[in-house]
Amino acid sequence: MRHCRSRRIKSVAFTQNYTILAPASPFHHNIKFFDVKTGKELGLIAGHGRDINVMTFSPDGKYLASAAWDRTVKIWDVDSWEEIRTLTGQKEEISGLDFANGSTLLVSSAYDRSVMIWDVATGVMLKELIGHGMRVNALDVSPNSKFIVSAGRDTVLVWNLVSGKKLWDLNGHNWGVTSAVFHPDSRLIATCSWGDELVMFWDVETGKLLKSLPGHWDALRSLAFSPDGKLLASGANNGIILIWEID
User: Fold this and answer.
1) Looking at the chain, which terminus has fewer C-beta neighbours within 10 angstroms, N or C?
2) Model pLDDT for residues 198-226, shown as the tens digit of each residue
3) Which tens digit of pLDDT belongs to each residue from 35-46?
4) Residue 206 to residues 138, 210, 239: CA-CA distances in angstroms?
5) CB within 8 A of 188, min separation 6: which ones?
6) What's residue 113's pLDDT?
């Protein structure tokens, strides 16, 4: 694999079939595409005016969404490497992106406490979900596209994606939830924070806390389920990654 020539890489994303890797170089405000098997560079796109924070591919692999410190979200056509449209509306740094309902909707979160649902085809903002009292650090859309979970400095909120209604307030961490992710079967949510060093599991249908796992001894930053849902990885500030078996 070739290297992106920059002092650091801010964000990376794979297509759903793991054939294309996209690293974002904040110092050049661009995104490079690589063929995973050969390492060959496939293309480069530029358009953001500031550091790129987060990226995600659509489930069908046709689009890439990227967000930057310039408070814009850009949607790119993966075949042509051309920008399709720019989404504007959030007033502070954008912290999360995820496609929903196939590739027709895009959900974004930001430090201005907002969660927004966008129509990919038109670029129109369909709903703004109001509920967080402090900045939103991350979000995830359930694999069945029924729910959104948003992780904020204050709490974790679960939303109905279609109606935009707030369903649950998952108020269990002491402070600063940094990640919230759905299990591949869409029935569980895992959360972590920098305030209590715990990984928590929640029932999506009831909003009830199912289990709280200690084990880390530093602030937690990220979570990821394995594709088969049997494992969860949690990463902390001290560089320690723990792998949990999901029963």
Assistant:
1) C
2) 899 999 999 999 999 887 877 788 899 99
3) 888 888 887 787
4) 21, 10, 34
5) 182, 201, 202, 203, 204, 210, 246
6) 94
